[in-house]
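2024-03-11 09:14:02 INFO worker-7 job=invfold-0412 stage=load source=structure_tokens
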């Protein structure tokens, strides 16, 4: 498909909801090269081996008992778009249900904006742990966007097998977090539903979205800490290059990242990492892992910048 076909898909957005999700998927994929997914059996097994090794090392280092999805999906960019459109359909269903009054032009604009965002992210995302929020299932998923992993390894001048393994370890840390905190998925779902329900009524539930931001900052920050403890190799250069990648890009790319909120994602990594480094410096990794023992132990927004307040509030494990 071409960019013309992408525009045509948006122009033809139909339905009665706030967003035509079928048109979103069609337009996003039309605007994005799917990328090469020609893997040998050895390549596919290497991804699986990295995931198994990451689970073993992370369990050994953290003491957390958790599982990983039965199968890690090795995707191209179009596969990733389809998987995330399915998630967005679930998350925004209340908004669609209450938005039948929207005129067609608003629906087309929402559809175009969402398709553009997904197309952009699909060209940059490397891997994703998906807890399948609001899916009414205990299943979870793990994705690797192979064409992007290959391209990023090349652009960062890192050997592909080593870079692939680093990404696998990072995504499996998220499986560890959700496994350690059975309440975490429910917490995120509750905040998402509150935020979207308010939007569907024309309001902005700032507290719900602030809670989501704080929780995801904890998720990303702890993952960074755990990665440093568990990765079975040198990682300083990988960390530096990935940090530079998060900050980098052309002026246009930086503008788009900021418009899509991806700047917040980078801030979550950095702010969360600083919080957990301070906590672990005082109480070790086990002490830092207390955040997953109870929803009340998640840091507040203020505590993220003042870890000593969290240390004073949360008792040591018995």
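2024-03-11 09:14:09 INFO worker-7 stage=emit residues=318
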């Amino acid at each position: 498909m071409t960019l013309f076909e992408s525009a045509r898909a948006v122009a033809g957005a139909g339905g009665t909801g706030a967003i035509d999700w079928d048109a979103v998927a069609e337009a996003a994929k039309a605007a994005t090269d799917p990328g090469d997914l020609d893997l040998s059996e050895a390549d596919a097994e290497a991804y699986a081996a990295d995931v198994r090794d990451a689970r073993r090392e992370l369990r050994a280092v953290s003491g957390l008992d958790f599982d990983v999805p039965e199968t890690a999906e090795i995707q191209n960019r179009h596969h990733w778009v389809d998987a995330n459109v399915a998630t967005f359909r679930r998350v925004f269903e209340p908004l669609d249900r209450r938005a039948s009054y929207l005129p067609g032009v608003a629906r087309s604009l929402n559809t175009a904006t969402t398709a553009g965002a997904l197309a952009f992210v699909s060209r940059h995302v490397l891997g994703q742990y998906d807890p399948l929020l609001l899916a009414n299932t205990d299943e979870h998923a793990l994705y690797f966007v192979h064409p992007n992993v290959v391209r990023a390894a090349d652009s960062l001048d890192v050997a592909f097998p080593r870079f692939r393994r680093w990404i696998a370890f990072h995504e499996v840390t998220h499986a560890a977090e959700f496994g350690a905190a059975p309440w975490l998925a429910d917490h995120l779902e509750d905040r998402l539903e509150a935020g979207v329900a308010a939007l569907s009524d024309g309001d902005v539930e700032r507290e719900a979205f602030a809670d989501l931001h704080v929780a995801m900052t904890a998720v990303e920050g702890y993952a960074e800490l755990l990665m440093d403890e568990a990765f079975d190799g040198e990682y300083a250069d990988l960390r530096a290059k990935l940090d530079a990648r998060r900050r980098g890009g052309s002026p246009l790319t930086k503008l788009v990242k900021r418009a899509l909120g991806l700047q917040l994602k980078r801030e979550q990594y950095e702010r969360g990492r600083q919080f957990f480094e301070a906590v672990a410096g005082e109480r070790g990794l086990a002490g830092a892992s207390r955040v997953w023992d109870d929803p009340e132990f998640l840091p507040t927004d203020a505590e993220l910048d003042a870890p000593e307040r969290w240390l004073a509030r949360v008792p040591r494990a018995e």
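2024-03-11 09:14:09 INFO worker-7 stage=report msg="The chain is about 65% helix and 5% strand."
2024-03-11 09:14:10 INFO worker-7 job finished
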